[in-house]
Design a protein that fits this description.
heterodimer; A: about 450 residues; alpha/beta; 17 strands; globular; B: about 325 residues; TIM Barrel; 8-stranded parallel beta sheet; two-stranded antiparallel ribbon; 10 helices; about 40% helix; about 15% strand; binds cobalamin; binds iron/sulfur cluster
């Protein structure tokens, strides 16, 4: 039986010491009840509490954090199979693989690509999250030299150490032991040695097996060796196997609370063909992979994958939105043009971006339409002449600017007559339909 | 602890719908489990990939995709043949020239083009109107009559005009695309209305309304996942029609498929970026259960077919 937040709260220390990362014991109890936190995070929980809360104190999929500081990334702690059931919480990590054989210039290029991978999309800063140093030849010294190159070249970026040879991992981890790396991988053959390194260096440990039965057995074995922070690789490389294995893992964890598979999944999407690699990584993003390793991180590839991840991980109940306000774009003066759009983040950021592109300083009035796009809000009766007029009047923009001209989106040109009636003294100008028409439209007026 | 594979028990199944005639006819649908879970169901048919052709040379397609259809775009018959050679399973002819804001071509002119295109290819043909609610009724009626016997797919019937368009499909033995706006209940409602007028639900293909990667894709994705769950787990006969996603029209109007390299250096090269945009949009729709896609870029379509082949195992 799952316990409610209040029932769990009764068993916590009630000191609100915040060590668990939550403001109060009650807040932490709520997270536990939602299966989004683990009791381990409270260092002061009594042995009694641990016993009583037992299973209900651990999320069905364990949360794992890679790295430290502001570039650290957390995966796992998901609670549903379909985003419409609730939402997907911790976006998957994209990591680029750097082979030991790429030591030197090739590695430097990839490190540079990671460092300059940040894009701004709908107000979020997105980037390649991690780097996986991979060993194929078993040359431990070379492997370690690439790890060092990564630690020095991309400070703070979480590291994944990929080798099945314990001595190689040991050589590599010497350069990043205090940085919470992920080790890949323990197998049936090397489990003891890998578990020992992971425990000593406080690293999380991926386990790799061929198929789900072998993975289950290995998971229990490594857990018994005392490693808690595991990541799973079932050996799936073809997209069909990825969907099937990952669905079974996620279902077993969430619907059956099957502990051996209650960990995040790591996927290797690398392909010779860059588009195929992007598609395989897309499948991983949608179907439950938490860490996705890519061979290369071309800018166009990351733009597509990070956009997909953003789509899949947004809250299906609450569209991304911005605050209602009259925003100043560039060095707008009281004579600069005034435009209106809705507070759907996507609409706002697209329009704002194009106004910035135009280099024409302007005012952008953003009206609260519960996060609906211009046309959707219009169709839903939330972006009507009456409501826009009330918003403009109440916004106080008339005090900020000297003129009385409002530019409306081209798709709602139909509103212009009614708006002129509702906003006496104002001139309503119909702008272009698509925001990308704004630069020439604005420059043409200036 | 041994792993017991947690299986769903499905009571429903997607209808098989056959498009076209002869050796190159295509059957879609038939799935008896959520997408590609072969450990608990069967997938007798692979999703079909249609390439889009327009009746008049498109003026709003970005250069990247225009270039990809080479010089063929000025002649719908040549273009349809080009699509067939490029490996498309189906051709989708969109009669955009009939829109009053475009060339306002007559229903008869459109029907003539539809018949010519149908005669020039031996793969199945989808005939789409321009999306103008009133004009589409005349255009699709004429086009349906002109292609009688070809087992085409006519669309899109929407709430406001479904009666006439469904009647045209019925009278000429075609299949029908029924489109609703990103809403599970509206999709079901339209299928019910069609059934009530005597249209065989096993001849309908549902269009839940597509959107592009980065521009509402998640809405289409989740609506499709919910439609599949209703069809298979709740055994709702009104949700068991195959699903088509008309993605090209959405993808090739967003900035990511148009902006020059110099304008957005942080987005990478336009050619790769634009192709990936359509290919990844397609991947998402396939993952959510699409039985057919309407695409524009032959290169993106080819990659999508590769993905489908890998998914079907
Ligand atoms: C996703 C979506 C939804 C989502 C909502 C997403 C959201 N947060 O808004 C959901 C599923 C909830 C939805 C619901 C509905 N939707 Co809807 N939806 C869409 C869809 C697919 C994409 C919308 C989107 O995100 N666009 C992207 C944003 C950025 O666009 P935008 O805000 O319009 O901004 C662009 C331009 O307007 C311009 N712009 C914006 N601001 C400004 C400002 C200035 C000054 C200028 C010059 C330009 C400019 O720049 C932007 C980019 O170029 C569109 C179809 C489509 N492909 O466009 C239909 C669409 C908007 N929906 C439509 C409808 C009818 C509805 C419903 C009424 C359906 C129904 N019967 O239930 C409901 C209403 C909602 C409600 N009752 O709450 C219709 C509107 C028809 C019309 N012309 O009026 C559309 C066009 C679909 C269609 N073809 O029929 N929808
Ligand atoms: S760490 Fe424990 S005691 Fe401290 S606030 Fe969190 S739950 Fe309460």
């Amino acid at each position: 039986m799952a316990l409610s937040g209040v029932e769990i709260f009764k068993h916590l220390p009630k000191t609100n010491c915040k060590k668990c990362g939550h403001p109060t014991c009650l807040a932490f109890a709520m997270k536990l009840a939602a299966k989004q936190a683990s009791l381990d995070a409270c260092p002061d929980a009594s042995e009694d509490a641990k016993k009583i809360l037992g299973e209900s104190a651990a999320p069905p999929i364990r949360g794992i954090t890679l790295g430290l500081g502001d570039k650290a990334v957390k995966v796992g702690e998901e609670i549903c199979l379909f985003r419409h059931d609730k939402k997907f919480f911790n976006p998957n990590v994209f990591a680029v693989a750097i082979k030991a054989s790429e030591a030197g210039d090739a590695a430097a290029k990839k490190i540079d690509a990671v460092k300059h991978s940040e894009i701004d999309r709908v107000g979020q800063k997105l980037r390649v999250d991690a780097i996986a140093v991979t060993d194929e030849g078993g040359d431990a010294a070379k492997f370690a030299s690439v790890v060092k190159q990564v630690v020095d070249g991309a400070p703070g970026v979480p590291i994944i150490l990929v080798s099945k040879i314990p001595a190689t991992i040991e050589a590599g981890i010497a350069h990043c032991a205090d940085k919470r790396p992920l080790i890949y991988a323990a197998t049936a053959e090397n489990a003891e040695a890998m578990a020992k390194i992971a425990k000593e260096k406080k690293a999380s440990l991926a386990i790799a097996a061929d198929g789900l039965d072998a993975l289950t057995a290995l998971s229990e074995k490594v857990k018994a060796l005392g490693v808690d922070d595991l990541v799973l690789d079932s050996g799936a490389r073809k997209v069909k196997d990825m969907i099937e294995h990952y669905t079974i893992i996620r279902r077993a964890a969430i619907k059956k609370n099957f502990k051996p598979l209650g960990y995040p999944i790591i996927a290797f999407a690398g392909r010779d063909n860059a588009v195929s690699e992007t598609m395989a990584a897309a499948i991983g993003t949608m179907k439950y992979a938490s860490i996705i390793i890519l061979n290369n991180v071309e800018k166009w590839k990351m733009l597509a994958l990070l956009s997909l991840r953003q789509n899949i991980y947004t809250d299906p109940q609450v569209p991304m939105q911005v605050a209602q306000n009259v925003y100043k774009v560039g060095d707008a003066k009281d004579t600069s043009p005034l435009m209106i759009t809705t507070n759907f983040s996507l609409s706002y950021f697209i329009v704002r971006g194009e106004v910035e592109n135009s280099k024409v300083p302007a005012w952008l009035a953003v009206m609260d339409n519960e996060g609906l796009s211009v046309l959707t809000a219009w169709a839903a009766g939330k972006f009507t002449a009456g409501k826009i007029a009330a918003f403009i009047t109440e916004s106080g923009v008339e005090k900020t600017i000297k003129h009385k001209e409002l530019i409306i989106p081209g798709y709602v040109a139909i509103l212009s007559g009614a708006l002129e009636e509702k906003l006496p003294g104002w001139k309503i100008t119909v702008g272009p339909r698509e925001a990308n028409g704004l630069p020439s439209f604005l420059k043409g007026r200036a | 602890m041994a792993l017991v594979i947690p299986k769903e028990s499905y009571s429903g199944k997607i209808y098989n719908v056959t498009l076209g005639t002869g050796a190159k006819a295509v059957t879609i649908g038939g799935a008896s489990a959520l997408p590609y879970l072969t450990f608990e169901g069967t997938f007798p048919n692979r999703p079909a990939v249609a390439l889009e052709v327009t009746d008049i040379a498109p003026d709003d397609w970005p250069e990247t995709v225009k270039k990809a259809v080479s010089g063929a775009a000025s002649n719908p018959v040549q273009w349809a043949k080009f699509c067939q050679q490029s490996g498309a399973d189906v051709v989708a002819l969109r009669l955009i020239g009939t829109h009053p804001d475009q060339q306002n071509k007559s229903a008869d002119e459109a029907a003539k083009i539809a018949a010519e295109v149908a005669a020039a290819i031996d793969i199945p043909l989808i005939i789409l109107g321009s999306g103008h609610v009133e004009k589409d009724t005349q255009v699709l009626q004429a086009a349906a009559a002109a292609t009688r016997g070809k087992n085409c797919t006519i669309g899109k019937a929407v709430e406001e005009n479904y009666k006439t368009i469904a009647a045209a499909a019925m009278a000429n033995d075609h299949k029908l695309i029924a489109m609703s706006q990103l809403d599970v209940n509206l999709a079901k409602q339209l299928n019910i209305l069609l059934s009530q007028m005597g249209f065989d639900k096993e001849r309908i293909i549902m269009d839940p309304m597509s959107s592009a990667l980065g521009y509402g894709l998640e809405y289409t994705y989740s609506v499709m996942e919910r439609i599949r769950q209703a069809a298979l787990l709740q055994n709702d006969p009104m949700m068991q029609t195959p699903v088509v996603c008309d993605i090209g029209a959405n993808v090739w109007k967003v900035k990511e498929t148009m902006a020059a390299d110099a304008e957005v250096p942080e987005w990478g090269g336009l050619e790769d970026r634009a192709l990936a945009w359509e290919a990844i949009t397609a991947s998402a729709m396939i993952t959510a259960g699409a039985d057919m896609l309407i695409m524009r870029h032959p290169g993106a379509a080819a990659k999508t077919k590769e993905l489908i082949a890998e998914l079907m195992g």
